[in-house]
Amino acid sequence: MSGSGSRAISPDVTCQGLTPTHNTERLTRLLDIGSAPRPYVLPGLVRGTVGILVAPGGTGKSMWALEACLGVAGEQANRALLELEMGTHGAASYLTVEDDESEIDARMLALAIHTGRDAYIDACERLTIDSRVGHGVDLVSQKWLTHLRSLAKGRTLLIVDTFSRLHGGSENDAGAMAAAVGSLELLARQEFCSILVLHHVGRLSALNERLGDKPRARGSSAITDNARWVAEMACDDDNDSIVRLGLVKANYGTRDALRVSYKRTETGALLPVEALAANVSKAVVPTIGRQNVGRQKRVPTEDRRAKAQQRRAI
Omega into 162 within 30° of 0, i.e. cis? Predict the structure, then answer.
């Protein structure tokens, strides 16, 4: 290529040497052996793909993410917490660039109260948590891509909290956001690890916390367009301690695969409302270790909406 406005393509970034994934032999062999079942990790989320969990700040998505990691790492922990229908259990990683080590300690202790000591220890044998607050994590940096790969290698699930701190670009730049999600997508495929990224809702969408039929993620629609799985969390309008979770996009399943209501307990843990109704003892917080469990006081829904309206006026 030539010209002042063009850029030459170097040989090392071309697609030379690539062969099609499906040749005649593979296509015809399908008639005899059929296709392999999809390996789901979370309901609707296939292993080796990228998902996005969208929610307003303070809803509880980080706590839910920790519970999901514990549940993937340990079947007993899943039964004690989220009770999700998981297709497979295995090692999990959680990378946070929002919460420091002391906050993670408090949240994990809160979850241990609900799982019990044995189930907690069993899950932690296959769980890695890494807090990198203030470290400048950036997907375009080879250093951080290598670190993400180390957290994904040999894992069933990697959760990253949050998307806004994974890049230095504008979230309204469709090209930059598609590239960012694409980097995660390639990593997920290469390591055969599902990557779930936590993300915030848009400013105007925060005024209405009800779950919708379309993704309400902040920034360009390329963020959710390029993900294979998108779920949303929102607090109930009438009861701030009830948190609803539902799929708004599931390329490899149905949106009905995940639609749950959770109750926020005294420890901050989210437990299924139906499970609490069936087993009242799950809602009772043991006194042992309770004095060490703390969580930030949540701003009432009305106050959050008022602040959002003030920002909108500005």
Answer: yes
Give me the domains of the chain, ranges plus CATH numbers.
Answer: 38-313 (3.40.50.300)
* pTM of the complete model: 0.80
Vertex 303, ends 297 and 306: CA angle to 5°?
Answer: 150
Half-sphere CA count of 86, side-chain side, radius 13 A: 24
Find the angle CA(116)-CA(117)-CA(121) to the nearest 5 degrees: 120
Helix/strand/coil (H, E, C) string of 205-219? HHHCCCCCCCCCECC
pLDDT in tens, 174-223: 888 888 888 999 999 999 999 999 998 865 444 345 555 556 777 788 88
Q: Are 242 and 263 in contact (CB under 8 A)?
A: yes
Neighbours of 218 (CB within 10 A): 19
| Both tokens assigned to 16 | 């030379």
Cα–Cα distance between 170 and 189 in angstroms, integer?
A: 25
Q: Where are the beta strands (DSSP E) in the chain?
A: 40-42, 45-46, 50-55, 92-96, 127-131, 157-161, 194-200, 229-235, 242-250, 259-264, 270-272
Specify the amino acid at residue 11: P
For residues 77 and 124, what is the distance between their CA atoms, to the nearest angstrom?
Answer: 10
Helix then strand then coil, in percent of the chain rounded to 5, is: 40, 20, 40
CB 39 within 8 A of CB 88: yes
8 Å CB contact between 49 and 117:
no
